[in-house]
Amino acid sequence: MNTHVNDPAALIEADRAHVWHHLVQHKPFETIDPQIIVEGKGMRVWDLNGKEHLDAVSGGVWTVNVGYGRTEIADAVRDQLVKMCYFAGAKGTIPGATFAERLIGKMPGLDRVYYANSGSEANEKAFKMVRQISAKHYGGKKSKILYRDRDYHGTTIACLSAGGQKERNVQYGPFAPGFIEVPHCLEYQSTDRGEGYAERAVKAIEDVILREGADEIGALCLEPITAGGGIIVPPKGYWEGVQELCKKYDILLHIDEVVCGLGRTGTWFGYQQFGVQPDIVTMAKGVASGYAAISCCVTTNRVFDMFKDDTDKLGYFRDISTFGGCTAGPTAALVNMEIIENEKLCENSTKMGERFQNNLLELMDKHKCIGEVRGMGLFQGAELVLDRETREPMDEKRVMGVVADCLQQGVIIGASNRSMPGFNNTLLFAPALIATESDVDEITAAVDAALTRVMA
Prior knowledge:
Layout: H1 8-18, E1 37-41, E2 44-47, E3 52-55, H2 58-62, H3 71-83, H4 94-105, E4 112-116, H5 119-137, E5 144-148, H6 157-161, H7 166-169, E6 179-182, H8 197-212, E7 217-222, H9 238-248, E8 252-256, E9 280-283, E10 295-299, H10 301-305, H11 328-342, H12 345-366, E11 370-375, E12 380-387, E13 392-393, H13 396-409, E14 411-412, E15 414-415, E16 426-429, H14 437-454
Parallel strand pairs: 3-14, 5-6, 5-7, 7-8, 8-9
Antiparallel strand pairs: 1-2, 2-3, 4-10, 9-10, 11-12, 12-13, 12-16, 15-16
Helix pairs in contact: 3-11, 4-11, 8-9, 12-14, 13-14
């Protein structure tokens, strides 16, 4: 029972005294109140003081793809939990089987769904699969996992070991061995991104493969579009080159769709924008739009069949995700998928994404501090710089000043911060896929006003 529902002051004090918030320094809460969000509807949320905000980041971390207040999802979850709330993943459930079939129908060439709870956990499963395949089929060879600078794959020690955002890793080592970084396709401050740009980026990955030895490398793990690392869309030809490298050196291609999945870029999955065929795909966030906890590690039958060996008593995938057995996740995910289909939200993401990007490009004409606009669908970024010619990054404090100004206006936006030393300079936008023209215009108007004030 909520004993503080009619006592905002008591609720704030309960939060201040007992809640350990994510990604927040709590020292300021000694003198200011933590913000408490109490209600959401569509694209809007209201805090404890009744202030309305337009949410341009889908729940703060790019999750609520279909918007707030979807009673059809909540009702379906309630009904399922009453009928059968949970059984360990060693057994099947109706929503688990049904959603797996529907999901695979959106992912030609992939076959199997392993359920878990978060993006970090889904990536852990993938890493464990690669390591067990190494032990079972390669005598311990092909155990190394390549990851890309600026990409992010989660918060656990293994995921941080595969994390390309250096400031996120500070103070959490030592890390797991066998994770090897490859350079990003974005040459940070280079103005030379013309002919041969994609080929240079692919060759940089191949150079690492040759240095480490292809017979030691089991998988390459990449985001289809780098998310928190700056909304970086790879150049044309990059993904084709990556696919060829994986085929050439027999390396599993693991694509992390935790952010881009379920319509964010305008297709069901980000990798489908580039015509590649992964071996492993991980996802979370928008799978159920935050209405229930769920993540999936999806594989081909080729990967799955490497664990079908009843002559080896330890040869199966000996892993469990306790709450991967909760039926709320796949139930919510089924209705979430139906909403995306019925309301044509992938198409809306493409259409509104084009408008959003054009709006940001107009802001770029007005504000010289915008060095580049990047993105796809309702996943857009504006990189702030001190000088467009040199691409010298704007300092992080001023970037976060733009975010704070927008919040004061009642618009919640994001920014890369405390992730990549010296390069935390990109404003991040990922509104719900239900966004309208007026929503997109309101967000960009707030950014316009904030840039005018902060950069004055």
